[in-house]
Design goal:
The protein is α+β, with helices and mostly antiparallel strands. It folds into 3 domains: 101 residues, Butyryl-Coa Dehydrogenase, subunit A, domain 1; 91 residues, Butyryl-CoA Dehydrogenase, subunit A, domain 2 (Beta Barrel), CATH 2.40.110; 154 residues, Butyryl-CoA Dehydrogenase, subunit A, domain 3, CATH 1.20.140.10. Strands 1, 2, 3, 4, 5, 6, 7 and 8 form an 8-stranded mixed beta sheet that branches. A hairpin with a 5-residue loop joins strand 4 and strand 5. The longest helix is centred in the C-terminal third of the chain and has 35 residues.
Length: 371
């Protein structure tokens, strides 16, 4: 297992390399091959994989710190990376030994595209299932070697399965024309009458085969640290970039942006709000991790607390940078400008369904039930 300190040091040592591919990824709509090579060298897919099969099994709090550092250096690596890591972690924890060997054998670093929504349907056949379906928003699909999807069996008492599929067995659409997260290549994945053997299947409602209690928590809580880490990474990058930008930017006879009191006010407030979002996230995830280890899982109410924190902290950080963007002027509209990229990706992260403000409804309901 690699420590979180060593993992972050490795990212920071490759910052210039990672950053140099950010604009290319946006232009291509996917991670360029050189960026994928760096991600493989950093062994990003293994950071959430159980330690007993060679992964780092990062805790919930460490996931936030890791993906904040990664997204800061390259948003495409940050977003696709947490998809790779989360899916690899689920496979490592839930597949049987034969499945683990097929995916992780020979010191592999498997790149997964993953979709949590159960968009596909399957029928049981001898030795496995036959799968059909189209899955939307498979981030990192264009360089994935495997896909992890969820499917439902149509019967009186429906069954669900996590399904690991080799990339050569799916077809990809070419429909990633979006405002934000442009480099993530989150295209649709279609599976047509595909046989998948039993060793590449797992029942999501049964206990994990290996790994710690973290792998027992629900999907939204499982991905909370990585999602918030991404949002904080792009928001902090925006703040650091606009500080440098303000030192040289002037508009007409108004003087330097850095000398304007209104900008100084918003900059200070925005940095404090991002710091507060980070602190809230670290505190909540640390407490949830301790509780999860102690009680071998989280209750529904405890998971609701984690997910509502994710929604609140994400929106707080995104709102903070939004107020600053209009100070930058027309120069920051150009597609090769780092400020507009960070601004768009921050808003893109807030649109992810795991960060939806629906979490506030559930948190409020929990408070009413406690009373």
């Amino acid at each position: 297992m690699r420590s979180i300190e060593d993992l972050i040091t490795d990212i920071q040592a490759r910052h210039d390399d990672l950053d140099s591919h950010a604009e290319t990824a946006e232009r291509l709509g996917k991670a360029p091959e050189a960026l994928v090579d760096i991600m493989r060298e950093l062994r990003i897919p293994l950071v959430k994989v159980p330690a007993c099969i060679g992964g780092d099994e990062l805790s919930m709090i460490d996931q936030l710190q890791y993906f904040e550092a990664l997204a800061y250096s390259n948003p495409t690596a940050g977003w696709t990376g947490f998809n790779h890591a989360g899916a690899a972690g689920m496979c490592g924890a839930r597949l049987n030994d034969a499945g683990v060997e097929a995916i992780f054998g020979s010191n592999a670093t498997p790149f997964f595209g993953a979709v949590s929504a159960p968009s596909g349907r399957f029928i049981s056949v001898d030795g496995g299932i036959e799968l059909n379906g189209t899955y939307r928003y498979a981030s990192g699909a264009t360089h994935a070697e495997w896909f992890l999807v969820t499917a439902i069996e149509d019967r009186e008492q429906p069954a669900a399965r996590l399904v690991a599929i080799r990339a050569q067995d799916v077809s990809l659409s070419d429909d990633w024309d979006v405002m934000a997260l442009k480099g993530t290549g989150s295209v649709n994945v279609t599976v047509d009458s595909l046989f998948v053997p039993d060793h590449l299947l797992a029942d999501p409602f049964l206990p994990p085969e290996r790994g710690g209690p973290m792998y027992t928590v629900g999907y939204q809580a499982f991905v909370a640290g990585e999602n918030l880490g991404f949002s904080l990474g792009v928001c902090q990058r925006f703040l650091d970039e606009i500080v440098s930008y303000a030192a040289t930017k002037s508009r007409g006879g108004d003087g330097r942006l850095a000398d304007r009191g209104a900008f100084q006010y918003e900059l200070g407030k925005s940095q404090l709000e991002v710091d507060a979002a980070r602190a809230f996230g670290l505190k909540t995830l640390d407490e949830a991790g301790v509780t999860c280890e102690r009680n071998h899982g989280l209750t529904d109410a405890e998971e609701t607390t984690v997910v509502s924190m994710l929604a609140f902290s994400t929106q707080s950080a995104v709102d903070a940078v939004s107020r600053l963007y209009h100070f930058a002027g027309a120069e920051a509209l150009f597609s090769d400008h780092v400020l507009q990229r960070c601004f768009r990706d921050a808003h893109g992260s807030a649109l992810h369904h795991v960060a939806s403000n629906v979490a506030y409804d559930k948190f409020g309901k929990k408070l009413l039930e406690l009373e």
